[in-house]
Design a protein that fits this description.
It holds the Pfam family adh_short. The chain has 245 residues and is of the alpha/beta class. 40% of the residues lie in helices and 15% in strands.
Length: 245
């Protein structure tokens, strides 16, 4: 079995996900670029290879059970194990002007779609990859969350947390809660799992609004994906430290 560390980043064809893949690749990881769209996926793989990253494409729709199973089978065939899984793929769901999702007028289908990707997709992919992660000496799982999922910050009238997002923000609270449950299940093992907030990053996800670059947004996830043994688990981090739940 290769000693090269193996990582999978979902939603890695652009934005923060691409920069997480690039960052891990620069550290010597062989990186699976998980993405639904074949053209965008292979374009990202080509860009990464052009800068020296050992990248390979992983067809992956996080909302599809068979796609997740097929992705795990591909990684097993190509690499034999997985050392780091970064669950980055996510969607905001349909928004009203001003990036608002009014809970009193929320379309339940929008909520279902957001939860299926941002929450169920993470469970679907994580559980499909667990047999490969368990083959690693130091398996790491990172769930890319958001500070808008912090109930403490959302409930604090003195904290500026942005517009009301009744589908997206609770999906990240749900993801954070799941991260804790996984950490409890993994207690006593070598699997470390944490949530990462990238901050407000200027990507197409935000309409290119935000003070942070994708490279800056990727930094916390990269750090958590490469934690040493004995590092934190079941926690929520941003650049400045721990984010309150």
């Amino acid at each position: 079995m290769s000693e090269t560390m193996i990582a999978l980043v979902t939603g890695a064809n652009k934005g923060i996900g691409y920069e997480i893949a690039a960052g891990l690749g620069s550290l010597g990881y062989r990186v699976g670029v998980g993405a639904r769209d074949a053209t965008r996926r292979e374009t990202a793989v080509g860009k990464l290879r052009a800068v020296g990253v050992d990248a390979f494409g992983v067809p992956l729709d996080v909302t599809d059970d068979q796609s997740a199973a097929d992705a795990a089978e591909l990684i097993e065939r190509l690499a034999g194990r997985l050392d780091a899984l970064v669950n980055n793929a996510g969607i905001s769901g349909e928004m009203d002007p001003g990036w608002v999702q009014d809970p009193t007028a929320l379309d339940l289908e929008v909520l279902r779609t957001v939860v299926d990707t941002n929450v169920m997709g993470v469970v679907r992919v994580t559980n499909a990859m667990l047999p490969l992660l368990r083959r690693s000496a130091s398996p790491r799982i990172v769930n890319v969350s958001s500070s808008v999922g912090s109930l403490a910050r959302q409930a604090d009238p003195d904290t500026e947390i942005g517009p009301i997002m009744a589908a997206y923000a609770p999906s990240k609270s749900f993801l954070n809660a799941l991260t804790v449950q996984y950490a409890r299940q993994f207690a006593g093992t070598n699997i470390l799992i944490n949530a990462a907030c990238p901050g407000l990053v200027a990507t197409d996800f935000t309409g290119f609004q935000g003070p942070r670059t994708p490279e800056q947004g990727a930094a916390t996830a990269i750090r958590l994906a490469t934690l040493p043994d004995g590092g934190p688990t079941g926690s929520f981090f941003e650049d400045d430290g721990v984010v309150p739940w």
